[in-house]
Amino acid sequence: TGVISVSTAEEVIIRNGYVTPAAPTSASLAAITINTSAVRVTVDDVSIVCADTATASIAGRNGIDSNGNYAQILNSTIKTGAGGSNGAGAGGNGGTGIAISGSTGVSVLNCTIIQTGNGGDGSTTNGNGGTGITIASSCANTYVRNCTIHNTGSAGAGAGAAGTAGYAILDSVSTAANY
User: Fold this and answer.
1) Calpha distance 35→29 (Å, rounded)
2) What is the maximum alpha-carbon separation in the chain?
3) How far apart are CA 46 and CA 19, in angstroms?
4) The pTM is what?
5) pLDDT beyond 90 at 173
């Protein structure tokens, strides 16, 4: 129970375990967070199961947020949480399986995303469904291989403006055409 956050460290290994954080009641950390100043962190054979949030407008918890350089995410299984609904405002977004941002040399190998969180229903805007793996445009040399993404979150279905269903992989990196 709880979350794991790796802040300023090198050569950290998180292996063979279960991470089952409680449902968030405010803006939350991912089940496992690898911060910018953490280098060469390995997450190997870890099962993550995030609970759905029941708090209005709060986003579902992400499985892994990786901002550190040369992280390795291996052989892990992830289920993320749904966003909270709101009868008087926006629904929360569903949790993303693995979110990679601002980092270089991240490898994601042999992972399974069982389910990402659904977006919460909203009266003004519906929450977006969670995506399996996101790669921000600020990343370089990210490697994703042999991963399975079973189900991505659906958008909230309240009276508000439509949300977007989750994607299997959302890669925002653009590459110059210098071949």
Assistant:
1) 11
2) 52
3) 7
4) 0.94
5) no
